[in-house]
Write a structure and sequence with these properties.
The complex is a heterodimer. Chain A is an alpha+beta fold. Chain A has twelve helices and twelve strands. In chain A, strands 3-4-9-6-8-7 form a six-stranded mixed β-barrel. A two-stranded antiparallel ribbon of chain A has the order 2-10. In chain B, helix 3 crosses helix 4, helix 4 packs across helix 5 and helix 5 runs parallel beside helix 6. The chains are: A alpha+beta, B alpha/beta.
């Protein structure tokens, strides 16, 4: 087939620019909003997903990780006594106040762990070591929140909940969905910082023994430990994510924005492809008069849409990758996993082809006799 | 001799207004291979409607139209395009070339519709352009061609489908007299040397001398038909046409 679609598309540079701008705008908007959604989703359940635990033991009716209720740490021994439990550690995850040097207060989420154990250790440590948390009053926080918390370097001393806190390390990319950064410390320090009694914990993390059935151990725990709920990490992660993303409406808003991106892109692309088709309507009439079946004309229009989609997608992803890179330094990470890169290609293609259907509907109704009208 | 086009009691009614409008009222006409027939008549007389129906572009209300032996009245809109493609070549007043394609590609497009492979289409398009003395304009875009050259490209495109019938709507209207004459000589050669049935709708009195027969239409009926001025020429069958036969 002579390159009619390509020529029609590239003939009018202004219209091509408008079409591609519409597609790029749409691609970037959808990628950013979906990426934000994924970033937020990952942030909501960061603590759970990186805990290394198989099961979470919580007080009754705890809806998400930030809403933990203290219970007696004696339950830890009850948990350890259940068959199939290889390891169990008490942890604390609770909001409290961080006092900056300038006297300002910031809300933080203190995460108290057993530094000698592998469960719920801070990850991506870029300065200092997790073992440094064994020293008195030691805390590790994420470098993203240095400015917010007024931290400039390791060794600085602050106050958390009225107790001394010394920064011994920094992590990278451990975001909190809320505006309160995570501050990792030893379990003992965390009790002080969060004003918990010496015999209280917030959660117990369980590592199941090799060969043990996860669900069976979960039921055993429910049978043997009173007044607790036991969730698999995946369950608790989903509960926490669902709460933040949907119960609060935050995720819905982001998803709506992504949907709007799709709608805006569709309208812009449909309008420009339609205008291009109308510009060439007489040519399509000539094609039909020459004996071309409708399918031949559709192929030309679809090809234009597909070419627009591929170019627009490529440009859109280049712009998006810069936006995604830029977001890594900010509080809200935009994630772009490979599945989204692939999915966006097909979504862009579908959007452009769908938009072309509007034009095809018009071309279907062309009267080839129009070629004899002047 | 079998007619290339045989029209019998052809009626076309447009559903405009309460009673509708008759564009053609029981018209009879035969067009023979090797004949150049001109349709004349005032605006609204029905000549373009007749050309459209003979070209399988418009459907008739009643009557019979045989195109290359096939009855087209009663065929669905889906059945008409293959007939057009197989038997009819069009030449339009406004040339109707594709402005974003080169002269060669315009001709190739028709060959592509006929299912000719890209390599053969390119070769054949070049031959056809050479036949209309535009071989050197293969890579030129329509915007870079004169009116006469555009119409010659349009003729080459019409011939690309190797049709038995050529239908032309005011092919010289947009051309000066010299260029118009060149185009008409080509049309005449198509009829007389290549055996095509050529039907031309025209208002241009300068080209009437090329006609074998002139049919005047008024109010949807044939008002007058001049007898052929010449005996039908010795026909050359379309399948006997070879590349390199000059049209000019």
């Amino acid at each position: 087939m002579p390159p009619l679609a390509q020529r029609n598309l590239f003939h009018d540079k202004v219209r091509l620019t408008v079409t591609l701008t519409g597609i790029v705008f749409s691609v970037v908007l959808i990628v950013v909003q979906l990426g934000l959604f994924l970033g937020f989703t990952a942030a909501t359940s960061n603590l759970i997903d990186h805990s290394g635990a198989d099961l979470w033991v919580t007080s009754k009716n705890v809806p998400y990780v930030e809403q933990g209720v203290p219970f007696s740490e004696r339950k830890l021994n009850q948990v350890r006594a259940v068959p199939g439990v290889a390891d169990a550690q008490k942890i604390i995850a609770r909001w409290t106040q961080w006092k900056r040097h300038d006297g300002g207060q910031e809300s933080v989420q203190v995460v108290g762990i057993n530094v000698d154990d592998r469960l719920e250790r801070p990850w991506n440590v870029v300065e200092g070591r997790v073992e440094d948390l064994k020293s008195p009053d030691a805390v590790i926080l994420d470098e993203l929140y240095k400015q917010k918390l007024g931290v400039t370097h390791i060794g600085e001393v602050f106050e958390i909940g009225g107790y001394r806190a010394r920064v011994v390390g920094f992590t990278r990319g451990i975001r909190s969905f809320t505006t309160s950064p995570y501050v990792f410390t030893s379990f003992k320090n965390a009790q002080d910082y969060t004003n918990l009694r010496q015999d209280q914990a917030m959660f117990i993390l369980v590592k199941v023994a090799p060969g043990a059935q996860l669900e069976q151990v979960r039921r055993e725990l429910l049978d043997h430990v009173k007044d607790v709920d036991v969730y698999t990490s995946a369950q608790f992660s989903r509960m926490t994510t669902f709460y933040w993303m949907f119960t609060t409406g935050a995720g819905v808003a982001v998803l709506i924005a992504a949907g709007l991106g799709l709608v805006v892109g569709f309208v812009v692309v449909a309008q420009t492809i339609y205008a291009t088709t109308m510009d060439h309507i007489r040519e399509y009439g000539t094609l039909k008069a020459m004996g071309a079946p409708n399918s031949y004309v559709y192929k030309v229009i679809m090809k234009q849409a597909a070419i627009s989609a591929v170019i627009g997608y490529a440009l859109g992803m280049i712009v998006s990758s810069f936006v995604v890179q830029g977001s890594q330094k900010g509080g809200a990470a935009i994630l772009m996993p490979p599945s989204m890169v692939t999915g966006m290609f097909f979504l862009t293609l579908a959007m452009c082809v769908g938009a072309a259907l509007v034009s095809i509907n018009k071309v279907t109704r062309i009267d080839p006799a129009m070629v004899f009208k002047g | 001799m079998q007619s290339a086009i045989a029209v019998r009691q052809l009626t076309k009614k447009y559903d405009e207004g309460a009673a509708g409008t008759f564009a053609l009222r029981g018209l009879d006409l035969d067009v023979h291979p090797g004949e150049l027939l001109m349709l004349m008549g005032p605006s609204g007389s029905g000549k373009t409607t007749l050309l459209s129906i003979m070209g399988c572009i418009l459907t008739a209300t009643s009557g019979s139209v045989l195109v290359a032996g096939t009855e087209v009245v009663g065929l669905s809109e889906k059945q008409l395009p293959p007939l057009r493609l197989a038997h009819i070549g069009f030449v339009f007043q406004g040339f109707n070339l594709f402005p974003t394609l080169t002269a060669g590609e315009n001709v190739e497009l028709m060959l592509d519709l006929k299912g000719v492979s890209a390599a053969n289409a390119s070769k054949r398009a070049r031959e056809l352009l050479e036949q209309v003395a535009l071989g050197q304009k293969y890579d030129s875009f329509p915007a870079d061609l004169s009116g006469g050259q555009k119409q010659r490209v349009a003729i080459a495109r019409a011939l690309a489908g190797d049709p038995e019938i050529i239908l032309a709507d005011e092919p010289t209207a947009a051309l000066d007299s010299h260029t118009g004459r060149t185009v008409m000589e080509m049309m005449s050669n198509l009829a007389h040397r290549r055996g095509r049935a050529v039907v031309i709708v025209t208002h241009d009195s300068r080209v009437l001398g090329f006609a074998d027969r002139i049919v005047k239409i008024e109010d949807g009926v044939i008002a007058a038909a001049d007898e052929p001025q010449l005996a039908p020429p010795a026909l050359v069958q379309p399948n006997q046409i070879h590349a390199g036969v000059g049209l000019v």
